[in-house]
Amino acid sequence: MPTKSGNVIILQSRPGITGNAAAVGKKEGEGPLKAEFDKIFDDEFIGQKTFEKGETELQKTAVLKALEKSGEQPDNIDLVLAGDLLNQCIGSSFGQRDLGMPYAGLYGACSTMALSLALGGILTDCGAISTAVAATSSHFCSAERQYRYPLEYGGQRTPASQWTVTGAGAAVIKREAENAPRISAVLFGKVFDLGVTDQNNMGAAMAPAAADTVARFLKDTKSKPEDYDIILTGDLGKTGSRLLKDLLIKEHDTDISAVHDDCGLMIFDLKKQDVHSGGSGCGCSASVVCSYVLNRLRKGELNRVLFVGTGALLSPTSALQGESVPGIAHAVLLTSD
Amino acid sequence: MPTKSGNVIILQSRPGITGNAAAVGKKEGEGPLKAEFDKIFDDEFIGQKTFEKGETELQKTAVLKALEKSGEQPDNIDLVLAGDLLNQCIGSSFGQRDLGMPYAGLYGACSTMALSLALGGILTDCGAISTAVAATSSHFCSAERQYRYPLEYGGQRTPASQWTVTGAGAAVIKREAENAPRISAVLFGKVFDLGVTDQNNMGAAMAPAAADTVARFLKDTKSKPEDYDIILTGDLGKTGSRLLKDLLIKEHDTDISAVHDDCGLMIFDLKKQDVHSGGSGCGCSASVVCSYVLNRLRKGELNRVLFVGTGALLSPTSALQGESVPGIAHAVLLTSD
Fold first, then answer.
1. How far is the C-alpha of A119 from the C-alpha of A284, rounded, in Å?
2. Do B93 and A328 touch (CB under 8 A)?
3. Alpha helices in B166-262 (DSSP H)
4. 3-state secondary structure of A92
5. In this complex, which of A96, A108, A316 lies closest to B191 when CB atoms are compared?
6. Strands B327-335 and B260-262, how do they pair?
7. Secondary structure element (H or E) that encloses residue A305, with its range
8. Which string of b and e fits B95-132 if b means at least 16 CB within 10 Å?
9. How far apart are CA A278 and CA A209, in angstroms?
């Protein structure tokens, strides 16, 4: 049953992640984490007729692989918590259609993996459900044409822009688990908007929310950056990561440089892969956390990872109507067994 | 702390709804429930420059009114659970931007009010959080141009089509509450898709999911239709309501006719208001439940309402790609004090 430390929710039973999987596209499969992924699709349509149906297939692949690794059948799952970037979250709901598991749809933009792990952790910890699946996905091609331009247009990308990851991650969460990485604590984020109107600089839009969440988590748990192996942000990229570290020093007198990393910087080789400021998209942190991070926590090579999923809550409509870009960041403390 | 009865989650502390409010548009304010709403806006822009910003304002109005009625300040709220129909749920996230409360975004299409009450009920029951706000909204004009045609086009509506409600509802949920309606049990729905491809017949697309959820709830709690004052579906409308009742008789030998009602049938006068099959949209069940239903539970004029929020999980893109319309239905048992 959860308790509180300030606003941080401490999960007393420390629910375990008994299976995790990541499925990604070709570009991601050529990056530094290529050996970590469960499935790499060379075909950008993932065997489907459209990019959107491809994204659905990608997420379903990750979910089924995570279930297999956990030894679970869909029938045993009490609740899937999933979302994505597509309008009306069709990547998730159409994937769920074929699997027959109870389903709660989430929308946290690129923070969705953290949000789904957070809610899945609490719901299993309190015993409301026994087994949950947290999942999310994004696809470069479906995101690009939805948020920006038709791919055929070949628009020039700005230096601060990030590359939407074609990837999906899924994790099976169980209250009773052995030899599994754990969800130990959760902090829900608030919406921050400092007036960034550049749709191609998501990192800057999300950094203030990430700074607030990291600072509140450290304060409420009376911990310090050095208490974590990694303070891992979702996908701030190069620009946003620098801003986050600056903000934490300036406003909270906290230097996380020694332990900070960012999923958007880990998934691509920024020097070789032409992704400008790094990776982004729901699938970015999902595929990094549900492969590299959870795998290493399982082996005990990492022990405490504060995963701070970051999301930019804009839409093309809000941008066209002159709105700035609100950001949010949810924190999940992942620990080894 | 929650326990289980089959798959139904029983909330032992029965969290209370200490404040509820509904804000609606002019047409809704001319309907049978006009005396129930907290605020009726005659201006379809809700004082803003665009319909989307208007929807944000509408949701914010409902949230602030619910907080006021509950005697809460935003600072005391541990988590807002909210979503809407707009791409990337901007109705909710832009509303939250100004209020500074921790925020978990949901996407359940028109089932969102039930989903947010369900999650808010469990999270407060287990003590992870003390006070939650569940909220959602929809707006006829923002939905119409996003899902269907520009309003200026004046497209002809088919007989089975429903009218998206301009409305928002919000409820403040607290673990410790007196003289308040209660959230007593929750059942999460599964995604059903029987192949309906008519985007203008959402009721038919959602009815199978509603039938499954109602049947499972009754079975798992060993209860009968007559144990409820109302079995209240979200917004199946006339067509979907008939299908639901038929499905329950045919497939589950259960007749709910005597106690069934539907938010889409309650909010408009179908004979006078030219809404064809009835109301729909996230804001439909939100504004009916957060006014009429919760007000009567508070007064003891209703005692047991099984609220089954129904959602059609399509997008314009999925429809254009030839996909059928998946439906989902989440159940929340609302009881008097």
1. 19
2. yes
3. 202-220, 237-252
4. helix
5. A96
6. unpaired
7. strand A304-312
8. bbbebebbbbbbbbbbbbbbbbbbbbbbbbbbbbbbbb
9. 19
Distances (CA, A) of B203 to B208, B274, B320: 9, 17, 19
What DSSP string runs through A7-32? TEEEETT--EEEEEEEEEEHHHHTST
Whose CA is closest to B212, among B243, B178, B185? Answer: B243
Take residue A36 and report the two structure tokens written for it: 């970590």
- Return the structure tokens found at A35: 């050996």
| CA separation for the pair B212, B196 (Å, rounded) | 17
CA atoms in the 13 A half-sphere facing the CB of B212? 21
CA distance A334 to A230: 10
What CA–CA distances, in Å, run from B294 to A216, B20, B304? Answer: 35, 7, 11
Give the model confidence (pLDDT) of A28-37 as tens digits: 999 999 999 9
Q: Which two tokens stand for residue B27?
A: 């047409």
Residues in chain A with CB shorter than 8 Å from the CB of B118 are 104
Which residues in chain B are contacts of A119 at CB distance < 8 A?
A: 104, 119
Determine the distance in angstroms separating the CA of B114 from the nearest CA of chain A, rounded to an integer: 11
- pLDDT for the residue numbered B2: 92
Quick check: B162 and B277 in contact, CB under 8 A?
yes
Angstroms from A166 CA to nearest CA on chain B = 18
Q: Across residues A263-292, what is the average pLDDT?
A: 96
Nearest-angstrom CA–CA distance, A179 and B199: 48
Distance from CA of B66 to the nearest CA of A (A): 19
**pLDDT band at residue A156, thresholds of 50, 70 and 90?**
confident
Question: In chain B, what is the straight-line distance between the N-terminal and C-terminal CA atoms, in Å?
Answer: 18
Entry pTM: 0.98
Cross-strand partners of B174: B16, B131
| Partner residue facing B128 (CB), from A83, A126, A318 | A126
List of residues 6+ apart from B267 with CB closer than 8 A: B28, B31, B32, B33, B165, B167, B278, B279, B284, B287, B288
- Is B102 in Cβ contact with A7 (below 8 Å)? yes
Longest dimension (CA), chain A: 52
Q: Which residues of chain B lie closer than 8 angstroms to A87, CB-CB?
A: 87-88, 315-317
CB contact under 8 A, A317 and B86: yes
Residues in chain B predicted with pLDDT less than 70, given as ranges, are none
Contacts of A86 in chain B (CB under 8 A): 315, 317
Nearest CA in chain B to A12: B128
> Rounded to an integer, what distance in angstroms lies between the CA atom of residue A230 and that of residue A306?
6
The reply to whether residue B9 touches residue A314, judged by beta carbons under 8 angstroms, is no
Sequence-ordered list of residues with C-beta below 8 angstroms from that of A185, at least 6 positions apart, any chain: A5, A8, A9, A10, A11, A217, A221, A331, A332, A333
Residues of A in contact with B90 (CB under 8 A): 313-315, 317-318, 323
Candidates A3, A109, A317; nearest CB to B52 = A317
Q: Which residues of A touch B125 (CB under 8 A)?
A: 126, 128
